[in-house]
Amino acid sequence: MPGTSRPVNFQTSLFFEAKYRAQGFLRIAGIDEAGRGPLAGPVVAACVILPEVPSKLHDVTDSKKIPHKKRVELFPLIYEQALGIGIGMVDAPTIDRINILQATFLAMQRAIENCPLSPDFCLIDGNRKPGWAKSAETIIKGDSLSLSVAAASIIAKVTRDRIMDDYGLKYPQWQFAKHKGYGTALHLSAIHAHGICEIHRRTFMPISQMGFSFSPA
User: How many domains does the chain have?
Assistant: First the structure.
């Protein structure tokens, strides 16, 4: 059940997919995001629809539990196996305008819209269901319990990391490739030295308390 402590392996991680497939749903999507907590950069969501019996994905689990190198190795395998994958992003100015929860829901909605195969049921990581999610179940720690959600977590994380690597080249003062926008000591030191740029989230603490205006690239 959602939120329970279930050993992560290939069999148990298909529990929720099998549950809803037995109810007649055929295109079951896992939905997860990366980048809710950073001080800079977008929030990125992924929608992943796997086949009923995927292969080569035994190592797929919560992206936070997998080393960077392993995530990068699994990324193309998930694309190879998936019936459909969609990516949705919401940038920092929009996050500041509508708040991170609504931005996360919007990124998820965009991910579904960008998936070439429209899902008929969604498994969403977390405990908050977006208003647009009619045929869906939220799963606490879903990225550890559902193979589809875990796959989405890896796709979202690797995609966002690559975006932040590109921002690291565009804005070298902040060294985004090293911390991906999270509030590390290195990042905070760079903010104190250089202020903020256009991809920083101005409503996030401690930036919101610093009174910075952003610096041009």
Answer: 2
